[in-house]
Amino acid sequence: MSRFSDIADWASRHRRLLGAVQVVVLLAFFGSLGWALRGSVHSAAHDLNNANLVLFALGCAALGAYYLVFVLGWMRILSEWGIELSYPAALRAEMLSMLAKYIPGGIWTPAARVVAARRAGVTDAALVTSSMLLEAGLSAVAGVIVFVLGLAFVDDVRAPRGARAAHRLRRSARRPRPAARLPAARREGAAAVRLPA
Fold it and tell me: Which terminus of the chain, N or C, has less C-beta within 10 A?
């Protein structure tokens, strides 16, 4: 433990040096990022010239609404387990864990949410982690359901039997009924015919 306290003491004594090193590392990062993306920027600019900005804005709004509603699901899971969390605190925890997934290693996403929930007053790390697992499982099941239902709207799909049945059901619902195909006079006559009892 003394090694960590020595490092903390050194960092507190050399704040300006530590800040300068951080600025240099940040500039090196942005410089290497710009160098790596130099060819992609031209093609992205070309794609933006051909983009429909209204559809792009609507897509961004739909994605933002999805994430804002996703937080309500996590809050609902926690409230069923007796933990009330305010929307801003839950949104902060969710967004922090979303950012943490870009850090290499799989532990940072749940760790970030546990830390953010702890800052909001929820100290049971196992419960927060369990709620995340339940949330991920429900999200995966919902994704499979949406995928299978979406197959019904795509033609010529090699899909499981259930999806093909849903596709056939949708196609048959779009076809006109046999009575609707008859001329009006024949329909009236067909309606007048009575079967013997």
Answer: C
